Amino acid sequence: MLSGNISAFLTHFYNKESKEFEVNLSDEIMKGCLLTQGGAIIHERFKEA
């Protein structure tokens, strides 16, 4: 199950045309998983700590 979840997560954000992973902050899944970006804490739950 874990490998299936990781595979689904990675394929969701992988762009086949550019062959890169895309960080799309408007995507609900990415927004919930990404803790930091550019040296700043962006996840709301961790900003409070």
Give a summary of the structure in a few sentences.
It contains three helices and four strands, in the order αββαββα.
Characterization of the model:
Helix content is 45%, strand content 16%. The chain has 49 residues and is of the alpha+beta class. It has a domain at 23-49. Strand 1 and strand 2 form a beta hairpin. The longest helix has 12 residues, at 2-13. The radius of gyration is 13 Å and the shape is globular.
Strand-helix topology:
Layout lengths: L1 H12 E2 L4 E2 L6 H6 L2 E2 L2 E2 L2 H4 L2
Antiparallel strand pairs: 1-2, 3-4
Taken as a percent bin, the fraction of beta residues is: 15-25%
Q: What is the mean pLDDT?
A: 92
Strand order, largest beta sheet: 1-2
**Separation of termini?**
31 Å
Count, helices: 3
- The geometry reads as globular
Helix content: 40-55%
Largest sheet: 2 strands, antiparallel
Can you count the beta strands? Answer: 4
Key attributes of the depicted protein:
45% helix, two-stranded antiparallel sheet, 49 residues, alpha+beta
